[in-house]
Amino acid sequence: MPLAIARTRASIEPWTRWLRAGRRPRYLHPAVTPPVSPLLTTHSELVALVKAIRAGGRLALDTEFVWERTYRPELGVIQIATDSTVAVIDTVALKDLSPLFPMLQDPSIPVVLHGGGQDLEILAVLMGTPMRGVVDTQVEAAFLGYGLQVGLSALLERVLKVRIRKDQTYTDWIRRPLKPEQVVYAEQDVVHLLAMHDQLRVELQRRDRLAWVEEELRDLEDPARWAPEPDEEQYRNVKSWQRLDARELAVLRSIAAWRERAARRANIRPNFICNDVVLTTLAARPVETVDELRGVRGLSPGTVDRHGKALLAAIKEGIACPRDQWPEPPVRQRRHAPPSGLIALLRASVQAVADREEIAPEVIASSRDIEGLVELSTTKSRNGDAEAENRLLHGWRRRLTGETLLQIARGELWIRYDPVRREVVEEPRTPTDG
Hints:
By secondary structure, the protein is of the alpha/beta class. α11 packs across α15. It is flat, with a radius of gyration of 27 Å. It has three domains: 3-226, 2-Layer Sandwich (Nucleotidyltransferase, domain 5); 231-325, DNA polymerase, domain 1 (Orthogonal Bundle), CATH 1.10.150; 342-428, HRDC domain (DNA polymerase, domain 1). It has helices at residues 3-20, 43-56, 101-104, 117-127, 137-142, 152-159, 180-191, 193-206, 210-219, 223-226, 246-266, 270-273, 276-284, 290-294, 301-319, 342-357, 361-364, 367-378, 384-389, 395-409; strands at residues 39-40, 59-66, 74-81, 86-90, 111-113, 134-136, 413-418, 423-428. The N and C termini lie far apart (84 Å). 49% of the residues lie in helices and 9% in strands.
């Protein structure tokens, strides 16, 4: 038997024996410690694992990382489970994860995560393209009344009656060797995910909500969602950039792009180079010398020593930018307050639908969605971008309640509370109504 396959099987065996012996507890008491699988550390072991996953046809995935000072998260381990396999990949020892990538980009192989936004972002950066076949149990749970962002441990306890320990949440996943309790923690984050997904999916099918969930999950595979923002656009992420005029924005664009490049080279977060207040201050009141930089509040002497010349060059470049290449300042529109009580009325309608469907109202519409809908329905000019971005005007949300909310906002529907049915109902407004 090849060594790689033997070691992969060895990593599976402790969990296999544990499960076959009927020792999969409904509750994992703190004193009960499941067996620890060896870490996968070699290319051949990873290839063997990928082969096993493809044979199983689906997988659960999670990552553990450290992201406190570095420009990007530092990946510590990747945990993977199938219906018969549990593996923890040591990404500190195993830098080349490319054998995983074709499988994670195969839409025919479901990848089950829980609250996987950061996992998806990390892997999209590593692969250069988003993961496909994404299934997020947090999204599934939201459509079954478990709340908008229910945690894994709470959901496992409610769905499978399984309790897992969460005592390694704040731990150093880069330091080696990992402690046995860290590996157990990592395994428990994935070992129950497939079984939980199966139960959630049955209930979604019973309630005829699979199509709703599929719409949400496909958004997680949108390349635009995970595409890195160009350095020249980073100025739009600087706090209060909207207050600057076009000339000042040209300087801000240049120095924000410089900060991003400097942070990436040094592998530190951009704010550790200099904060947003420093950038907007320099954009509004540019300086020309290193001595003047030393007088800027928020710039440390060390930063000026290391980056002063490059920062001054970026300021100079922004000042020299031709007028026809200045960024467009955001359009400042005088916003009129919406008709009295209209937002509250639409929120009540959303709440009524949420109560009827037994899901959190935030799953249907955020405050921003409702306020955007009010603005669209009460202004004469059409805003195509706002319509395209408002979730209430697309897909299952429009069919469920978006069209009704538009009609209410336009005065085409009445809503009232029906004490017999104990719910809010809509009624068409007729020409004879006052």
